[in-house]
Amino acid sequence: MRPFIFGTLFVVVILNWLWPLPLALPVKLAAVVLIVMAALYHQWCRLSSGSVFTPEMPRPLIILFNWAFGALMFVTLGQLLVDIVAALIALVQWHGIVIGTAPRVGVGVVAAFLSALGVWNAIRVPPVRHETVFIPGLAPVFDGYRITQLTDLHITRLFPRRWAEEVVARTNAIGADLIVVTGDFIDGSVAMRRDDVAPLSQLKAPDGVIACPGNHEYFFDYREWMQHLATLGFHMLLNTHCVITRAGASLVVAGVTDRSAGRHGEARPDLAAALAGRPADAPVILLDHQPGEARQAAERGVSLQLSGHTHGGMLYGLDRMVARGNNGFVSRRYEIGAMTLYVGNGTGIWPGFALRLGRPSEITCFHLKSA
């Protein structure tokens, strides 16, 4: 699939967009080299670190690569659209297909702008989004209880220590009762990311900081990461739960491992084990990195499921494809029977495709209300 995508970028951008432009041959050849280098971005990531998931390059270079890769994608789509329109005009007017220089230049300008906007949206420190959720059976003492969710931080060279410090400061300023992180903390080993994740130890809430793992933790020394995150103050829920009490009333927070765990020789997600022994009359909030099994959670009486993983689909339109791989769940809020599912768009994003248009990043604060 990947060679096909790269091949399409090469053919459309070089032959159908670049080559017809009235540029000198040396300029065109230099542009061809740059286009090929940008299209092979993920190969450079692999060469830099041994993994396509973690580009070990200077941050400005990662930003530049993401902008160039995004621009190639938008040029491909834009030029195909121009070709279709030109073909339709030629068919209606019954003459040959003619595409002038102006449409090609326009495609390039628009593609460069959209890609720049997409990268900026992806790498900024996200704003705080507030959601009110009605919880059946929530005790009055928990009415107004606030939970802040971070998800898909993907701390890397693209989202380094300085970015993490700003996220922590913005999160702590909310003053929520509980902070949760629904996986994909990092890309890279503990040795590579130790300094960049250190600010996460400053996340503070009265009822602590609770988390579940994402699939990317399994790509990089999963057990070492679970131990290290625990030393940073995270209560990792691995197919288990904890109980928060107020004046004799209870609220259960459960967490499961990721669906990819079995492929890495680790414990698969087990919701039954996570809920075993919980107070029977207490509402359950479930942390599950991937949203695909939400209907099963609803059937087991979960009141609120918090997930991530999809990055909201990243781009408007692309989100429909991402939804297909997650049982229809891709961005923000869904009501499944008596359960609310919230799929966070992500606080960060995978540095291999750091673009967002129409699917902004977020830090999300949930205000629980008695139903």
Structure description:
The protein is of the alpha/beta class and 371 residues long. Helices cover 42% and strands 18% of the residues. It contains twelve helices and twelve strands. The chain has helices at 2-18, 25-39, 41-49, 59-93, 101-123, 161-174, 190-197, 215-219, 222-231, 271-275, 294-299, 318-324; strands at 128-135, 146-150, 178-182, 209-212, 234-236, 240-246, 249-255, 284-287, 304-307, 332-336, 339-343, 363-370. The strands form two sheets. The chain has a six-stranded mixed beta sheet. α1 packs antiparallel against α2 (25-39), α1 packs across α4 (59-93) and α4 packs antiparallel against α5 (101-123). The longest helix is centred in the N-terminal third of the chain and has 35 residues, at 59-93. The radius of gyration is 23 Å and the shape is elongated. The model has no long low-confidence stretch (mean pLDDT 94). This is Metallophosphoesterase. Keywords: Membrane, Transmembrane, Transmembrane helix. InterPro entries: Calcineurin-like_PHP, Metallo-depent_PP-like, Metallophosphoesterase_sf.
Radius of gyration: 23 Å
Strand content: 15-25%
Class by SSE composition = alpha/beta
- Assembly status: single chain
Shape designation = elongated
Helical run tally: 12
Helix content: 40-55%
Q: Which spans of ≥5 residues are poorly predicted at pLDDT below 50?
A: none
Keywords: Membrane, Transmembrane, Transmembrane helix
Domain Calcineurin-like phosphoesterase: 146-312
Transmembrane segments: 30-49, 61-91, 97-120
Pfam family, one: Metallophos
